[in-house]
Write the C-alpha cells for this entry.
Amino acid sequence: MSDMASPVSSARQVSVRQDIVPRTFVRSQVSPDLPPPLAVGGVIGWMRDNLFSSVLTSSLTLLSIAFLIWALPDLVRWLFIDAIWSAPDGDACRAPGAGACWAYVNAKLEFFAYGSYPRDMVWRVDLTLLIGAGLAAWLLWPSAKHKSAALVLFLVVYPVLAFHLLHGLGPGLRATLSLLADLFGSKPLADVAANSLPVVGTNLWGGVFVSLLVATVGIVVSLPLGVLLALGRRSKAPVARFLCVMLIEIVRGVPLITVLFMANTMLPLFVPEQWSPDRLMRPLIGVALFASVYMAEVVRGGLQAVPKGQFEGAMALGMSWWAMMRLIILPQALTIVIPGVVNSFIALFKDTTLVAIVGIFDFLRAVDTARLDPVWAGPTISATGYVFAATFYFVFCFGMSRYSMMMERRLTRGRSH
Amino acid sequence: MTVQASPQPAAGLATDGLAIEIRDVHKWYGKFHVLKGVDLEVARGERIVICGPSGSGKSTLIRCINRLETHQRGRIVVNGIELTDDTKRIEEIRRDAGMVFQHFNLFPHLTVLENCTLSPIWTLRMPQKEAEARAMHFLERVRIPEQAHKYPLQLSGGQQQRVAIARALCMSPKVMLFDEPTSALDPEMVKEVLDTMVELAQEGMTMICVTHEMGFAREVADRVAFIDRGEIVEINTPEPFFSAPQHERTKLFLSQILR
C-alpha cells in the first residue's frame, strides 16, 4: 500500500498498457452465422423445453403419462377392440364384456340423419345438404372466384330452393305450375305440378339435418344482424342506439331456454293466426335472435379495437359513413374478433340441442330416442349413442375452430412486420 | 393583443378565389376554450405553415377545416363551400381537402395500391383501371411505385407517409392539409417526406402545414403563423417572421425550437 506512488511500479504499468493497446481486437470480416447448439433443436431439445423444463413441469408430465397409461388401454379396448361392428340386432351387444355397439349406430344412421322424414324421400334432404355444402365450400374456400355470386346464391336462392325441396311444393305454387302447364299444354309440367315434391310437414323433420338447419340459419342470420346491432349500439342517433341496447340487453339477459319458450308460445300471440309461424320456424327465430345479440357484443368489441386514426383516415378521404364502415372499419374489426365470432358459432352449434325442449327433433334427441328401441336395448347402447353424438359435435366444432385459425392467419398476413 | 395578425394572404396572390376562409372560429373541449376566435384566409396556391407549442390548438384548427373536429362558433368556408352539419357538404369538402396525418392512418388491411384507389373508386365512382393508373402516377411521383403491392406495415415510416401523401393526391384535392407529417418519423426519414412536400409546393398546391420543421417553413411557406393558447399570435412572411418576430411569445417559441 505504501509503494502505491512508487515510480517503478507506475513505469511498469505504463509499459504493460502500451503492450496491450496494439492488440485491441477489431474484427476485419463479418462474422459467419453459426448453427444453433444441439440442445436447442431436435427431439431432446424439444422435450427439455416442453416436458421437463422444471420440477413442476416434469412431475406434471409424469402424472399425465400415468393417467394415459391408466385410462387409454380400457378406452381403446371399449371403443375398438371389444366393439361390435356389425350385428343384425342387439344380442351380440348385450353379451357380457362387449364394448361399444357400433352396429347399433350403423342400423340407426338413417334415423339419426333424417329423423322421421319419409324414407323414400330422403333424397330431397341429401340434395339440399349437398347443394348447401357446395355453396358453403365455394364461399369458404379462400381463393375461390365470384364470391359475391356465391353469396347471393347462398342467401337468396338457396333458402327458397331448400324450403321447397325439404317442405315440398305448397298448394299455391302447385296451382301456379298447373296453370302454366295448361297454358303451354305441357304434359311433363302438369306431372310435376300434380305429383312431385309432396309436402313433408316439419313434424316429421329430425336428426342431423335439423341440427344443421338450425345452426346454419343461426350463423347466417346472426353475423349480419349482429353487425347491424353493434353499429346501432355505437350510433350517434339516440333512438336507434336505445332500441339496439334494449334488444341486446333483454335478449342477452334471459336464458336461451326462455327465449325458445317465448318464441314458441308468444310469437303466435303477436301475429294473425294464419300468419302464425311454423313450429320449427319459432325456435329458428329464437335461436337466430339469441345468437345475434351475442354476436353484436363480439363485433362491438372489434369496432372499439379499431384505432381512431382509421376512422379519421377514411373520413378525410370523403368516404360516406357506410363506405367507411364496409370497406375500412368492419374488415379490420371482424378480423380482430374472428376468435370471438367462431366462439359464438361453436356455442350456437351446440346450443341447437336445446331446441329439443320445444319439441324439435334434433340430432341429440334422435340419439336419445333411438336408444329406447327394444331391438337394440342393452347396457352399452346409451354410451355408444352419446359417444357418437359427442364425436359428431366435436368434429364440426373442431373443424370450425381450425378453419377460423387458418382464416385468421390469411387475413392478418401482411399486416404485421 | 396580437401583433401583425394580418389574416390576409401575402401580396401578389389572388385574393378573389380564396381556398380557405376562417372567420372568428371558436372551439371548446368541454369547458376548455381551445380556439379563441381564429381568423385566417388562404388564397389559392398559397402555402401556410402553422407552428406553435403543443396544446396551442394548431392541430385542432387544421382538423376543423375538414370537420374532423367541429367548431362551435364562427365560419369556415373551403373552396366556396361553407362547413355546416350537412353530411353531403362535409363529404364534398373532405374530397377537396386532402389530409396527411402524423400517424399516416393508412389502411393496414389493404395494399398500398388499394389504399390509393379505394376512395376514388367508391366516392368518385372512378373506373378501377383509371383509379389504378392514377394511383401509380402519384406513387411514382412520391418515388415508391415498386411498393404498390406491399402492405403499409411492410414499409418504413417515411415510405408510409409518402404513400399517405399519394393517397390524398389521388382524390385530386384542391387543398392539402398536413398535420405534423414528420413528427412520428425517425430522423433519417424526415427529409424524404419534406422533399415530397417541397415538390408539391413548387407545383402550386395550396397547402396548410402544421409542422415544427422551420427549414421547410423558410423554404416554401408564403406565410408562417404562430398559434399560442388558441389564437394566432403572429402571422407574417417567413423572412420577417424568423428574423424579426414581433411578439414576445413568438420570440420565446422560436428561441426554444431554433437552437
User: Anything to note?
Assistant: The CA atoms of residues 108 and 370 of chain A lie 7 Å apart. Chain A is about 70% helix and 0% strand. Chain A has a mean pLDDT of 88. Chain A touches chain B at residues 309-310, 312-321, 323, 327-328, 331-332, 335, 411, 414-417 (CB under 8 Å).
